[in-house]
Each structure stands twice: as C-alpha cells, then as structure tokens.
Amino acid sequence: MSEVSGYLYALRDEAGKAAENLRRCTALVERELAEAKGTLDRLEGIASKAELAAELVAASDLEPSMSSDEPPF
C-alpha cells in the first residue's frame, strides 16, 4: 500500500466518523426542536387563556353592576 493510499483510507475513516457524529447531532437537534415546539404550544395555550381572562376582566370593568356570581334577571 502506498503512502497516498494510506492517507486516503484514513481520510475515508475520518469522514465516516464525522458523518456519524453529524447524524447523532441531527437526531439530538430534532428531539430538542420537538420539545421546544411542545413548550411553545403550551405557552400559546396559556397566552390565549390569559387573553380571554383579560377580556373578561375588562368587560366586567365596563359593567360594574354585573356580577359573575349572580345571573342577571
């Protein structure tokens, strides 16, 4: 085996290791992104509930005679 062939085989092995590391990193990033999307979805749900609560409070401020405990008759 010539010296050049040895370098080419070593380079091929290093490229294979780099490709495997890239696959592992990609899988890790995909898991992290899925977790982040789940967190974002939960936060958006909380934000929409908070927005609705703020609208209810604002509506009750406009109608102080209305009580949430007693239905209007």
How are the SSEs placed, and which strands pair?
Elements: H1 3-62
Q: Gap between N and C termini, in Å? A: 98 Å
What is the H/E string?
A: H
Secondary-structure content class: mainly alpha
- Supply the number of helical segments: 1
What is the typical, i.e. mean, pLDDT? 88
Radius of gyration: 30 Å
Question: What is the beta-strand fraction?
Answer: under 5%
Textual characterization of the structure:
- The longest helix is centred in the middle third of the chain and has 60 residues, at 3-62.
- By secondary structure, the protein is an all-alpha fold.
- It is built from 1 helix and no strands.
Quick structural gist:
With 73 residues, the protein is mainly alpha-helical.
Which keywords apply here?
mainly alpha, 73 residues, 1 helix, 0% strand, single chain
